[in-house]
From TrEMBL:
The lineage of its organism: Bacteria, Bacillati, Actinomycetota, Actinomycetes, Propionibacteriales. It comes from Nocardioides bigeumensis. InterPro entries: His_Pase_superF_clade-1, His_PPase_superfam. CDD domains: HP_PGM_like. This is Histidine phosphatase family protein. Residues 208-230 are annotated as: Disordered.
Amino acid sequence: MTIVHLLRHGEVHNPEGVLYGRRPGFHLSERGKAMAQRVADTIGDRDIVHLRISPLERVRETAAPLAAARGLEPVVDERVIESENCFEGRTFSNGPLTLLDPRTWRYLYNPFRPSWGEPYKQVSARMRAAVLDARAEALKSGPDSEAVVVSHQLPIWVTRLSAEGRPFLHDPRKRQCSLCSLTSLHFDGPVERPRLVKVTYSEPAGDMLPRAEASAPFSAGGAPDEKKPT
């Protein structure tokens, strides 16, 4: 049995409410840094031997406390970066009402793909490849070793949807992937024939979530949620 934990980054300092996507220059807030430290304090004593990260600043900063706790050098992997989005750089101060702006309609014709950004299938495929590579690296240290991949909400969520055999079309407000949460993929079998046994979910920093996210559907803290892949 080998576990690959998908860790979402912590809270970002973003007072203007910009959809930052892949843009550089967005760093963790003070609360985000505390969240990252909480994760390290929670899982730092596990047999984590490999750490793989997105190249964006908020992810590097989230991974830093865990890397220090485990004495690991993170491997930067472009495959676990945030998904592309044509709304990147815009502010959404009006929430969903922003999407009523006629200038956005030409991007919204196909929510299944989705038409406003990188296709879900493409995101899932690159994430799966990175996850399996992380698992292979962990196995070099023994059959019960673990790996952590630090990424972003959408890539982690579509990876989970794929693992559980669920369709990609979903309501973004109902993603079970809060800040600094862990979506853990439990594998069995050799490197050549990996078998996903189950998926678990937990929120080490659940009590530190911003009020809006803590009260959102499916994002409350508590005991790990567990599902077996279909």
